[in-house]
Write a structure and sequence with these properties.
There is one protein chain. The protein is built from nine helices and eleven strands. It is of the alpha/beta class. The protein has two domains: 268 residues, Class I glutamine amidotransferase (GATase) domain (Rossmann fold, 3-Layer(aba) Sandwich), CATH 3.40.50.880; 62 residues, no CATH class. Strands 2-1-4-3-5-6-11-10-9-7-8 form an eleven-stranded mixed β-sheet, with helices on both faces. About 6% of the residues have low confidence.
């Protein structure tokens, strides 16, 4: 079971809204209860989709556990009026500093500065990382948040890529860890990023690489600096839906046609079938010689959406199920060792 907690400010009053997303329970016993925070920092157009993706993935992974979800966002992430309205029902990040969550997930966002330390949210994001080490059993840092995490914790600077690393890449499990238990030796995973992390730098600073890809490099890795919280880093996006890369590619083509980017975007690797690739190559050839926004109407959205599939879903559910079970195991262990501990 997963229950969503949102806080809405209505004329100075605070109300909690809860909605059950799944209802699997252990017969004859109350399910384990896990309190998870989701700090959704995605740009305005992706806010709802990101929230939906994580809710669905946590619901599928929860099994007999009762996962209670609280939504937050970093207040410095640039928002339009639409975006501010979307996050107005989230809990205030000010509430985070004085409370405990069993686990927290911190999403990335689109970078605006070449140096992460120049991003407007840098100070608050690093405070979240420090809070997480003392107030959670485990924290997941996704994409840009993962890059920010290793920069803040160990001074590891990500390297810019020549072009976007984009598509579904076969990853290999390279470490036996509770998070990768029962996952296949090879698993597909979507990636979408402009930067990469040198694996040798991670290893030199004591990180454990769990999965990597020949085409995409490091996929997931972990580190535990204190005895309190396991930090989990994803360069990929296990939470993505089947059509997420498709819609992202269409968005990037639109940016090219509107001259918001200089080069035509790369097609996602390992994702489209042969016929769709042919149609998209034809569109690219027209766009390179006749660059105008109207051509975006020729993008085969409906046909392509009917052919793509979520080949990474099983692996994603396994990873998140293992993460939730790890948190529950740590919570039980520490409460037994310190029965007076109460959050």
């Amino acid at each position: 079971m997963i229950t969503e907690h949102r806080t809405a400010n209505l004329g100075g009053l605070t109300t909690d809204r809860r909605s059950t997303l799944s209802s699997e329970r252990v017969a004859g016993a109350d399910p384990p209860v896990l309190d998870i925070g989701l700090i959704n920092n995605m740009p305005d157009p992706a806010l709802d989709a990101t929230e939906r993706q994580f809710r669905a993935l946590l619901a599928a992974a929860a099994g007999g556990m009762d996962v209670r979800l609280t939504m937050y966002t970093l207040p410095e992430v640039p928002r339009t009026d639409f975006g501010r309205k979307q996050v107005s029902s989230y809990s205030s990040l000010d509430d985070l500093w004085t409370r405990h969550h069993d686990g927290v997930i911190v999403t990335g966002t689109e970078p605006r500065a070449s140096d992460l330390k120049d991003e407007p949210f840098w100070g608050t994001l690093t405070r979240v990382l420090e809070w997480a080490e003392d107030h959670t059993y485990s924290a997941i840092l996704s994409c840009l948040a993962a890059h920010a995490g290793i920069l803040h914790l160990d001074g590891i600077v990500r390297r810019p890529l020549g072009d976007k690393r984009f598509g579904v890449f076969e990853c290999v499990r390279v470490d036996d860890h509770p998070l990768t238990a029962a996952t296949p030796a090879r698993l597909p995973m979507p990636h979408s990023r402009w930067n990469e992390i040198p694996e040798e730098a991670l290893l030199a600073c004591g990180y454990r690489v769990l999965t990597r890809s020949e085409g995409a490099g490091v996929d997931s890795f972990v580190k535990q600096r204190t005895s309190k919280s396991l930090l989990v880093f994803f360069q990929g996006h296990p939470e993505y839906e089947a059509v997420t890369l498709l819609l992202e590619y269409r968005r990037d083509i639109g940016r090219y046609l509107r001259q918001e980017r200089d080069t035509y975007p790369p097609m996602p690797e390992g994702y489209f079938d042969e016929d769709t690739v042919g149609a998209l190559v034809a569109l690219q050839e027209r766009a390179l010689t006749d660059r105008r926004e109207e051509l975006l109407a020729e993008f085969p959205t409906a046909n392509a959406a009917g052919k793509v599939s979520n080949t990474w879903r099983s692996a994603a559910e396994s990873l998140y199920r293992n993460w939730l079970q790890y948190i529950w195991s740590e919570k039980e262990k520490r409460l037994v060792a310190q029965p007076e501990l109460s959050y």
